[in-house]
């Protein structure tokens, strides 16, 4: 299995900035999914030591498994990356997707998708959607139930012609249900934790007024975002505008504290860099959601990847392909991206065994 090893920390590096970004963090060059997350660590049950590796993969007796492995040859399909990280590394929010990246283009999507399993302690309907020849994403119909474990399995050895592959599994830990609603008209962000209002934070969102290719890139995008990562301090510059000359009136380069990323186009929830008089009163940012120092620090502290941040009140709609904004598609639209025939059993039908930015 060609699983890539990466450093084990929850703070993510971020994905490529979209062309229509309202602002951007310094040094945000395009990166692969492998650069964002740790390697997929196999968490399958232990197999008796008397069995050979081939027997562990196939469940056959040692001699039969050995013959099967010789006949099968090298695996034709493996997994290069799984997002998010496992239960021992992070807790995730109730909107989190499971993102599986294969090591090569998948020729038979039906065969590959049919061996992917998702089992939750608190089951909810879900489906896979292919977004490229190598990448498939799992999303639920409604948000995950909080405070549970979810087990993902890829039984790659069951794909015809791929018997030599190793099966992979990963268990995720779902944490508190953090749901933030940003009202750009009332200039406030309300954060609920497990259904209870935890904090109301005065904010300032994108002011608008800079149109590029028919899009006002100074507006915060309205829609259901997911937290993708966070940084204690993020460097935000005007380079996304093509402005790199310090003498240009539009130039800026700022060190922004408590930055929680919510899209690929450079949108964050972060501490306002001054201009506190506008918080709760008007929209003045380049597209980010500015918050008070105390509010931003608190929000940063509770944030988990996959937390829901819903922005309302602007005319610029969030594209479902921008970051992890998969909840922008209706459930009917989402299911159309599956390779499996309509009416196939839901992958999560059974419970699991007990076990930069925009300068805002």
From TrEMBL:
Pathway: Cell wall biogenesis; peptidoglycan biosynthesis
One Pfam family from the record: YkuD
Regions of compositional bias (Polar residues) in chain numbering: 29-39
Compositionally biased intervals (Low complexity): 40-58
InterPro entries, sorted: Big_10 (IPR041280), LD-transpeptidase (IPR050979), LD_TPept_cat_dom (IPR005490), Transpep_catalytic_dom (IPR038063)
Domain of life: Bacteria
Residue stretches making up the L,D-TPase catalytic domain: 178-312
PROSITE patterns linked to this entry: LD_TPASE, PROKAR_LIPOPROTEIN
Database matches in SUPFAM superfamilies: L,D-transpeptidase catalytic domain-like
Location of region: Disordered: 29-73, 340-360
Signal sequence annotation: 1-25
Keywords recorded for this protein, A-Z: Acyltransferase, Cell shape, Cell wall biogenesis/degradation, Peptidoglycan synthesis, Signal, Transferase
Active-site residues per Swiss-Prot or TrEMBL entry: 270, 288
Name of the protein in its database record: L,D-TPase catalytic domain-containing protein
């Amino acid at each position: 299995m060609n699983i890539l090893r990466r450093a084990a920390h929850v703070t993510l590096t971020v994905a490529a900035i979209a062309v229509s970004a309202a602002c951007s963090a310094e040094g945000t060059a395009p990166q692969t999914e492998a650069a964002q997350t740790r390697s997929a660590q196999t968490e399958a049950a232990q197999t008796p030591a008397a069995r050979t590796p081939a027997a562990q993969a196939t469940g056959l007796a040692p001699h039969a498994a050995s013959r099967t492995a010789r006949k099968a040859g090298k695996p034709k399909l493996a997994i290069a990356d799984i997002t998010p990280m496992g239960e021992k590394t992070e807790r995730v929010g109730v909107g989190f997707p499971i993102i599986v990246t294969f090591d090569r283009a998948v020729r038979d999507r039906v065969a590959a998708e049919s061996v992917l399993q998702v089992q939750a302690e608190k089951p909810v309907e879900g489906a896979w959607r292919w977004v490229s020849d190598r990448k498939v994403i799992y999303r639920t119909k409604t948000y995950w139930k909080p405070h549970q474990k979810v087990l993902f399995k890829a039984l790659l050895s069951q794909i015809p012609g791929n018997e030599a592959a190793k099966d992979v599994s990963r268990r995720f830990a779902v944490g508190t249900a953090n749901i933030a609603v940003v009202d750009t008209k009332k200039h406030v962000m309300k954060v609920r934790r497990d259904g209870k209002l935890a904090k109301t934070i005065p904010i300032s969102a994108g002011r608008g007024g800079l149109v590029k290719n028919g899009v006002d890139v100074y507006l915060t995008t309205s829609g259901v975002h997911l937290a993708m990562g966070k940084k204690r301090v993020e460097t935000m510059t005007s380079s996304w505008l093509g402005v790199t000359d310090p003498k240009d009136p539009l130039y800026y380069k700022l060190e922004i504290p408590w930055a929680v990323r919510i899209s690929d186009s450079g949108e964050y929830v972060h501490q306002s860099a001054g201009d506190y008089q506008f918080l709760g009163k008007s929209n003045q940012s380049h597209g980010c959601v500015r918050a008070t120092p105390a509010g931003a620090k608190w929000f940063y502290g509770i944030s988990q990847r996959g937390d829901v941040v819903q922005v309302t009140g602007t005319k610029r709609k969030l594209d479902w392909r921008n970051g992890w904004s998969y909840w922008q598609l209706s459930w009917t639209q989402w299911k159309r991206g599956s390779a499996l025939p309509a009416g196939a059993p839901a992958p999560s039908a059974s419970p699991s065994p007990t076990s930069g930015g925009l300068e805002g």
